[in-house]
Amino acid sequence: MSPVIPIQSSPLTAPAAAAGHCSTAPAAARPVLRERGQREVFCGLTGIIWLHRKIQDAFFLVVGSRTCAHLVQSAAGVMIFAEPRFATAIIDDRDLAGLADANDELDRVVTRLLERRPDIKTLFLVGSCPSEVIKLDLSRAAQRLSQRFTPSVRILNYSGSGIETTFTQGEDACLASLVPCLPAAASADQPNADLLVVGALPDIVEDQFARLFAAMGLPRVQFLPPRRSTELPPIGPHTRFLMAQPFLADTARALEDRGARRVAAPFPFGVEGTTAWLKAGAAAVGVDATVVDEATASARQRAQAALAKIKPALQGRTLFFFPDSQLEVPLARFLHRELGMALVEVGTPYLHRQHLEEELALLPPGVQLSEGQDVERQLDRCRAARPDIVVCGLGLANPLEMEGMTTKWAIELVFSPVHGYDQAADLAQLFARPLDRRQRLAA
Ligand code: SF4
């Protein structure tokens, strides 16, 4: 196990932050406990589960082992009535001499698949972490196969390997691989900058945001990823992009390399986050905040009323985040500021200070932030704190439940529609329900 590398060496005895305050300390000045040790997270293959539903003409071919096939199949479920849009090409034990065969086999699998499925317009070859797969050069395979199948099918590759990625980073790697394919925006006929929302959102949430932007006079807002891979949004120096998810560092960098500029904003969770996010996006393309206030008034009121009903179940309850989805900081901000929960520790796999700057500024002073993981040490801190609810991965949830703690699976926060006004109460309910269940069991 790797040693702990603490930036702040004080023991983690900071009291749970009181609700209702925000920090005036610059985000960069916040002490963060950095840990490097054994970690308990899913790998980036998990992203296929929501990405294959979002991009309706794409296919995800995992190049991996039986373990990878098992993970994707059991997490995504078996589609009985529809043609599946993911599969695993299983690469068994091979030495280097067998690599030529592996490449031939991959070409055969891809050819068979694309001949049988003319509906596929983009094929992602998704790398994994078995050593036989690491030896394969999937970017060369994608280039080789592209020469054969372009223009009818675009073939890209990215890695979902558990060595390199946590589970939400699979989406980041996938979207980053798409960015070089985005067409260049023609700027001459575009007096205003274009707005691009980045991050896979359920269609229902995307439609809600599109309606709100249209009500602000912005009908041309585009989304990455699009529902069809043949309708990629154009980008260029006029493009301002607004991140809907906090785990898209590589995608953001790739967009900036194409000349687009990121709009700094909190993330659209809860009423406060959604309003600030919409206002930042609108301001970036010259729309006044009062226009946003008018366009969002009824949605805000509905969401506030729905949250007020759930708040009594959460107010004052203590919360501990293990690092998993990279949504931890925005969610902690929402649960603390809009529902009055007390934050014991907010752990996140990676703390992107620039992308999270607006979020960190809204967290209460004294909250314990941790980055990375040394799972045994973190478990010790959690057991000592005995929080009312623990947000963690599936592997930790069951043992903690056995110890009498109430848990919330982090993965559910990514699978459920949780962004925006109309989902704010559903997001709060995801935390209120396990507490309610525990109470009923104890009664
Ligand atoms: S990519 Fe690695 S961590 Fe993920 S399922 Fe395959 S073997 Fe396991």
Under CATH, the homologous superfamily of the largest domain reads Nitrogenase molybdenum iron protein domain
Mean pLDDT across all residues, rounded?
A: 89
Radius of gyration: 22 Å
Strand/helix succession: EHEHEHEHHEHEHEEHEHHEHEHEHEHEHH
**Widest sheet: strand order?**
1-12-11-10-13-14
Distance N terminus to C terminus? 41 Å
Shape: globular
Structural class, by secondary structure, is: alpha/beta
Q: What would CATH call the class of the largest domain?
A: Alpha Beta
The largest pleated sheet is described as:
6 strands, parallel
Count of folded domains: 3
Low-confidence stretches: 1-24
State the share of residues found in helices, binned by percent.
40-55%
Name the quaternary structure.
single chain
What is the CATH-assigned architecture of the largest domain? 3-Layer(aba) Sandwich
| Hetero ligands | iron/sulfur cluster
Could you describe the 3D structure shown?
It is a single chain. By secondary structure, the chain is an alpha/beta fold. The chain has 3 domains: 27-42 and 308-442, Nitrogenase molybdenum iron protein domain (Rossmann fold), CATH 3.40.50; 44-165, 3-Layer(aba) Sandwich (Rossmann fold); 194-297, Nitrogenase molybdenum iron protein domain (Rossmann fold, 3-Layer(aba) Sandwich). 42% of the residues lie in helices and 15% in strands. The chain has 16 helices and 14 strands. The chain has helices at residues 48-54, 66-76, 99-116, 131-135, 138-149, 169-178, 203-215, 249-257, 270-284, 289-314, 328-337, 357-360, 375-385, 394-402, 410-415, 424-442; strands at residues 32-36, 58-64, 86-90, 122-127, 154-159, 194-198, 222-224, 239-243, 261-262, 318-321, 342-348, 368-373, 389-392, 407-409. The strands form 3 sheets. A 6-stranded parallel beta sheet has the order 1-12-11-10-13-14, sandwiched between helices. Strands 3-2-4-5 form a 4-stranded parallel beta sheet. It is globular, with a radius of gyration of 22 Å. It starts with 31 loop residues before the first strand and ends with a helix. Iron/sulfur cluster is lined by residues 43, 45, 64-65, 67-68, 71, 128-130, 160-162.
